[in-house]
Amino acid sequence: MAKIIGGITTSHIPAIGVAMDRGIEDTPYWKDFFAGYPPIREWLNKEKPDIAIVFYNDHGLEMFLDKKPTFAIGCAPQYENADEGWGIATIPPVTGETELSWHIVNELIENDFDPTVCQDIKVDHGLTVPLSLMYPGRNYQHLKVIPVSINCERHPMPKPSRCYAFGQAIGRAVESFAGDQKVVVFGTGGLSHQLDGERAGIINADFDEECMDKLVSDPEALTKYTNDELTEIAGAQGVELNMWIAMRGCMLGKVKEVHRNYVAPISNTGAGTQLLLPED
Ligand code: DHB
Ligand code: FE
User: Fold this and answer.
1) What is the C-alpha to C-alpha distance for residues 6 and 277, in angstroms, rounded to an integer?
2) d(CA 280, ligand 1 centre) in Å
């Protein structure tokens, strides 16, 4: 059986990718933010997971407002990205993990989730920035990737409780996969932010810290929010918390937090990161 060995959360702000490409991680603006990542990189380097399931949201590179799957999962042998207009470099493709992807798709549909199945999709900063952050030089070693996207852009969006249940269904599918692969799960995006409109720039650091606490000890509490409430409390793009909630669902049992960092603002966002390990 494949095994989920850990969960990683991180914001996916495009400016992070630009900062890495320019080599300005140690400048006063960025240093506290980037100081949050070496412990996670060290853990990845020690554990060397075989597969990363990445919950992300497609901001329009592939799935624009005219075609917006609620949940989508990649089943492709590789994933390319493209210029999104944020100034981040186009990077080499990441390798897909098709067997586990298809197993997850089959299990999801058998268990009443009906994701869009994507055999050819480009992946945007929601996926590429977190992977670039965790693997310096984008040296992914033997890591294979399964992109799982959740609609956070266009109403109606899936509720936090549904995202949690979706993550749990994926976690159970991983557990039923014949193999001995080590799987790491990423929840990307968030935390509080709003990129446009009258409340552009809103950040709620207290709420962000509380979310990170609850993600560890009481994730079901986070599933009680509606997306309208999340928008009110954490801004329109605060709904990206749903990817963290799905990641936590995927971990199934109790977890312990072994690392956390939070800096606000980075670009327009309360930028958090955590490393969660299953509690035996
Ligand atoms: C920013 C944050 C995001 O989550 C995103 O998708 C794009 C931009 C930002 O803070 O700039
Ligand atoms: Fe985003």
Assistant:
1) 5
2) 35
**Ligand 1 centre and the CA of 43: distance in Å?**
26
CATH number for the domain harbouring residue 76: 3.40.830.10
- Write the CA distances from 184 to 4, 31, 144, 181, integer angstroms: 6, 26, 10, 10
**115's tokens:** 């994701």
Q: Model-level pTM?
A: 0.98
Q: What CA–CA distance (Å, rounded) separates 124 from 121?
A: 10
Q: Is 193 considered catalytic here?
A: yes
**Total number of domains in the chain:** 1
* pLDDT tens column, 71-87: 999 999 999 999 999 99
The Cβ of residue 22 has, within 10 Å, a number of other Cβ atoms equal to: 11
For residue 84, give its domain range. 3-278
Q: How many CB atoms are closer than 10 A to CB 177?
A: 18
